[in-house]
């Protein structure tokens, strides 16, 4: 939509529009049903944004507090004594001193040295962190962690998918940062899937409890807790969240090359297979990408899996080594070679 | 209330009376601006009760400093102070968090975009999406919804030009329309 018409709509909404502009707006809205939808949407948004505000409830109480204050302080407050300035200067020096000290500590602190483990496509691994927690890192994933954890918290950064078995330490919460989302636990096992490319994060708790915070503009905005066999899915683009009950066992089964797909799109399944088996899967017809499939594989041979997927999505595939091409099975779109 | 006859005074006339220790003028300003200031403050604090306390503090400060303050225009001063107090408060306290449960909306994949727009839930959805806008867009959109604040007031509060306010507001609505559409369709 052009900015001009949007301007006219807001002016219309505020009833400040001129007669001439109103005619222009009316003609624009009438000229196309798409314009009418846009007009309606803008009005709805302007209306809804007003509902953002809750009515104050304590106006009278707050006025009484002010009135009480006025009764006590009829006279304006006197200027501060000069020694206050002196005290402030002394305080400032003290703060600078503390700051330098803090910086020295920071440099000496081993918690600021990091290790980074990256797993290429077609592989997976498990290893033990400095605190004896166990991490299973899936194909195409990266974990960054300090060589020595801080005393009050254990922070790691994850890109991709990992299953954690956290050693219990209540005073030292374990925090997994994945972009805007961080997951906190003290002694829990759970799976975090957060491939940066996918704009989609899924956290599934197997045992214990995990607290999740979703940040917007670098500030915490949404929070929630997960219990065993609960999954939280976050669309990092829109912030939409869905919490569901799920079998956590199945979610973490990728560790033994067992894969369960529940209502997953062919595109999602294809990227999982690409990572797990180091493949290059192309979907020739874009319509194939969004077909939803529910299926499971248990160390199934690759060709068997591809066959199953082709049958379920009504498509066909060709394979040469690691390059696989899915195409629509209907005669109109099949390519002749 | 006794403030009735004071209501005819302009902001600046009230300010002059305040300078002469007139408590009734303070009460008139309070009544005039309490709600819009509290609303304005919730853009930052996201919690009306917190904001109400901050705005009351603002009026206490206004009273205490009435002799020292050199204010030419009352309204910009009040909103600027409300912004400063709110941001200072945020530095000391973490903002109140929404929970995933509060924001959960029923799955809506069966709705067409038109149905989404006519649906009662859509307003609730827009509200939860507002907090996902880039900070500046969110601020401008919400500020523009407060009746006492005009475009010309928003610009100095954010340190941008009136023209930028207009463009940002346009972008905010555009972003919301995109978010509304994609979140209605996906998952």
Automatic annotation (TrEMBL), chain A:
Pfam families: FecR (PF04773), FecR_C (PF16344). Keywords: Membrane, Transmembrane, Transmembrane helix. Residues 117-209 form the FecR protein domain. It comes from Pedobacter cryoconitis. Residues 259-324 form the Protein FecR C-terminal domain. PANTHER family: PERIPLASMIC SIGNAL SENSOR AND SIGMA FACTOR ACTIVATOR FECR-RELATED, PROTEIN FECR. GO terms for molecular function: sigma factor antagonist activity. The chain crosses the membrane at residues 83-103. This is Ferric-dicitrate binding protein FerR (Iron transport regulator).
TrEMBL record, chain B:
Residues 124-176 form the RNA polymerase sigma factor 70 region 4 type domain. Keywords: Sigma factor, Transcription, Transcription regulation. It comes from the Bacteria. This is RNA polymerase sigma-70 factor (ECF subfamily). Belongs to the sigma-70 factor family. ECF subfamily. CDD domains: Sigma70_r4. The keyword Transcription regulation applies. Pfam families: Sigma70_r4_2 (PF08281). GO terms for biological process: DNA-templated transcription initiation. The lineage of its organism: Bacteria, Pseudomonadati, Bacteroidota, Sphingobacteriia, Sphingobacteriales. GO terms for molecular function: DNA binding; sigma factor activity. InterPro entries: RNA_pol_sigma-70-like (IPR039425), RNA_pol_sigma-70_dom (IPR014284), RNA_pol_sigma70_r4_t2 (IPR013249), RNA_pol_sigma_r2 (IPR013325), RNA_pol_sigma_r3/r4-like (IPR013324), WH-like_DNA-bd_sf (IPR036388).
């Amino acid at each position: 939509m052009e900015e001009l018409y949007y301007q006219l709509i807001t002016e219309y909404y505020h009833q400040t529009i001129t007669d001439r502009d109103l005619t222009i707006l009316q003609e624009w809205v009438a000229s196309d049903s798409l314009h009418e939808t846009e007009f309606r949407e803008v009005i709805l948004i302007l209306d809804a944004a007003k509902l953002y505000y809750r009515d104050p409830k304590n106006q009278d109480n707050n006025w009484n507090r002010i009135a009480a204050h006025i009764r006590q302080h009829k006279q304006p407050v006197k200027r501060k004594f000069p020694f206050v300035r002196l005290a402030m200067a002394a305080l400032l020096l003290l703060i600078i001193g503390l700051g330098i000290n803090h910086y020295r500590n920071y440099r000496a602190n081993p918690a600021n040295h990091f290790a980074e483990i990256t797993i290429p496509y077609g592989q997976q691994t498990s290893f033990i962190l400095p605190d004896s927690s166990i991490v299973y890192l899936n194909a195409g994933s990266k974990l960054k962690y300090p060589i020595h954890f801080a005393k009050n918290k254990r922070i790691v950064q994850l890109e991709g998918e990992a299953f954690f078995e956290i050693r219990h330490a209540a005073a030292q919460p374990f925090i997994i940062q994945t972009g805007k989302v961080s997951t906190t636990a003290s002694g829990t096992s759970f799976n975090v899937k957060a491939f940066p490319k996918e704009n989609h994060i899924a956290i599934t708790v197997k045992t214990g409890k995990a607290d999740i915070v979703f940040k917007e503009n670098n500030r915490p905005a949404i929070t929630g807790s997960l219990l065993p066999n609960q999954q939280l899915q976050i669309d990092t683009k829109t912030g939409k969240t869905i919490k569901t009950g799920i079998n956590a066992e199945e979610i973490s089964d990728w560790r033994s090359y067992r894969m369960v797909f529940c209502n997953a799109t062919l595109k999602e399944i294809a990227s999982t297979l690409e990572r797990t088996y180091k493949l290059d899967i192309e979907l020739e017809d874009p319509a194939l990408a969004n077909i939803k499939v529910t299926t499971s594989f248990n160390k199934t041979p690759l060709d068997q899996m591809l066959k199953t997927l082709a049958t379920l999505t009504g498509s066909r595939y060709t394979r040469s080594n690691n390059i696989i091409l899915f195409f629509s099975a209907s005669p109109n779109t099949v390519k002749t070679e | 209330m006794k403030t009735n006859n004071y209501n005819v005074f302009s902001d600046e006339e009230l300010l002059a009376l305040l300078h002469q220790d007139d408590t009734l003028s303070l009460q008139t300003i309070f009544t005039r601006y309490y709600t819009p200031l509290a609303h304005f403050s919730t853009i930052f604090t996201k919690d009306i009760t917190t904001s109400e306390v901050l705005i009351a503090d603002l009026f206490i400060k206004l009273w205490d400093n009435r002799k020292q303050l050199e204010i030419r225009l009352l309204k910009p001063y009040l909103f600027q102070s409300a912004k400063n107090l709110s941001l200072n408060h945020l530095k000391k306290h973490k903002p109140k968090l929404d929970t995933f449960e509060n924001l959960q909306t029923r799955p809506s994949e069966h709705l067409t975009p038109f149905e989404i727009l006519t649906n009662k839930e859509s307003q609730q959805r827009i509200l939860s999406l507002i907090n996902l806008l880039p900070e500046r867009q969110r601020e401008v959109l919400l500020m523009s919804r407060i009746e006492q604040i005009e475009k010309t007031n928003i610009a100095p509060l954010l340190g941008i030009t009136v023209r930028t306010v207009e463009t940002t507001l346009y972008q905010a609505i555009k972003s919301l329309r995109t978010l509304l559409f994609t979140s209605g369709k996906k998952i």
